[in-house]
Write a structure and sequence with these properties.
Number of strands: 2
CATH superfamily: Tetratricopeptide repeat domain
Shape: globular
Strand order of the largest sheet: 1-2
Largest sheet: 2 strands, antiparallel
CATH architecture: Alpha Horseshoe
Helix content: 55-70%
Length: about 180
């Protein structure tokens, strides 16, 4: 019987070279699952230092969920100093890879100028990506999309027609990062 060890490669050498960073070592699938579960358990128990260490290992390899959780830790000041700029950095990493929760939070941060310069065009772009998701079945998903629509409408009231057109163009042209 041949044993197969699955290896999950999240960042390729090509991606790392483009960013100027060395590629992280591949992570075995079983280690990935173990780190995720351990990070979740530590976070649930309030052991934020351990959770951050485990999530950081995953986030550095491109795990979108881990990137988002680290962003929330910095946003809320859980186990780390509350630093909105650092939260925005982690939210941006996850948002660029398609995390709708990160897109919502990053859009809100741009709308409020919290941790990033206030920018209604970028706020609209990120909020619009969430607000225009296809109709979802669960009530929680519907509320999430409705919340993004409401926030986008509030931002729109502060924008010129040219800014709105630019923001819509950015949202239309957006593609998730690899």
């Amino acid at each position: 019987m041949v044993a197969v060890i699955a290896t999950l490669i999240i960042a390729t050498p090509e991606i790392a070279q483009q960013s100027g960073n060395a590629a992280p070592a591949p992570i075995k699938l079983e280690d990935y699952v173990s780190s995720t579960a351990s990070g979740d358990a530590a976070y649930s128990k309030g052991d934020y230092a351990t959770a951050l260490r485990l999530y950081r290992q995953l986030a550095d390899r491109g795990n979108v969920s881990a990137q988002y959780v680290i962003g929330t830790m910095y946003f809320d000041g859980r186990g780390v100093p509350q630093v909105y700029a650092t939260a925005a950095l982690w939210f941006r990493k996850a948002a660029e890879r398609g995390s709708t929760a990160a897109q919502m939070d990053l859009g809100s941060m741009y709308a409020d100028g919290r941790g990033v310069p206030q920018d209604y065009v970028l706020a609209y772009k990120w909020l619009n990506l969430v607000a225009t998701l296809p109709h979802l079945s669960s009530e929680a998903d519907k509320k999430f999309v409705n919340s993004a629509s409401y926030k986008r409408a509030a931002v729109t009231e502060k924008m010129t027609p040219a800014q709105i057109a630019n923001a819509q163009k950015l949202a239309r042209e957006w593609k998730p990062a690899p």
